[in-house]
Design a protein that fits this description.
Number of strands: 8
Order of helices and strands: HEEHEEHHHHEEEEH
Number of helices: 7
Radius of gyration: 24 Å
Distance between the termini: 19 Å
Structural class: alpha+beta
Largest sheet: 2 strands, antiparallel
């Protein structure tokens, strides 16, 4: 499926996604503007504030009501993050059942077959060859990368038609205007 990532893409790389960088802007009408960590949903109030003992406004600890609201919001955000996967699956299923795409080929279920010839990029979906999606410059860079970097080189890096922008950073146009227009139309249709 070209439009809509598979569920595995939604799985966080790190457990810290569920417990760290929990941002609270305001609580009980007080400006908090701080990030918190909740080691687990079972963390007690005392354990949480022991861990977050350095969190204060101008060196003054948060008042009791603000502390209660902060912890309530932190727990709520941690729980929301834990439920993202199941919520994503539910929403994706609802969309699959009800949405009628403008360009059905963007939604076709497909596993690309890799060619025996590494210089030939695989199709993205049935009836959607790589050449219809990617700019020639990008396909050239892809071909050089999978072919071991044949072509003009600078400091051992195959450049092709890539533009060197900074240190080891290069720029190359990726998507064709026609494909971008098709995707934009699909997004507009979805809304």
């Amino acid at each position: 499926v070209l439009c809509g990532p598979p569920y595995r893409w939604l799985l966080p790389d790190c457990h810290c996604f569920y417990s760290e960088n929990l941002y609270i802007k305001t609580a009980a009408d007080a400006v908090v503007d701080a990030y918190f960590t909740l080691p687990s949903l079972d963390t007690s109030d005392a354990q949480f504030w022991e861990h977050e003992k350095n969190q204060a406004v101008g060196g003054t600890p948060f008042p009791s009501q603000v502390r209660k609201e902060i912890l309530k919001q932190v727990r709520s955000e941690a729980l929301r993050r834990r439920n993202l996967g199941s919520e994503y699956k539910l929403n994706a299923e609802r969309i699959r059942e009800r949405y009628v795409p403008l360009s059905p080929r963007l939604f076709a279920s497909y596993e690309p077959e890799l060619s025996a010839d590494p210089s030939k990029p695989p199709a993205l979906a049935p009836g959607l060859p790589a050449e219809a999606v990617f700019m020639p410059e990008f396909l050239e860079a892809w071909t050089m990368a999978v072919g071991g970097g044949r072509g003009e080189a600078k400091d051992g890096v195959a450049l092709g038609r890539m533009r060197h922008v900074h240190l080891e950073c290069f720029e190359v146009p990726i998507l064709t205007n026609a494909f971008v227009a098709e995707m934009v139309a699909e997004v507009g249709h979805f809304k």
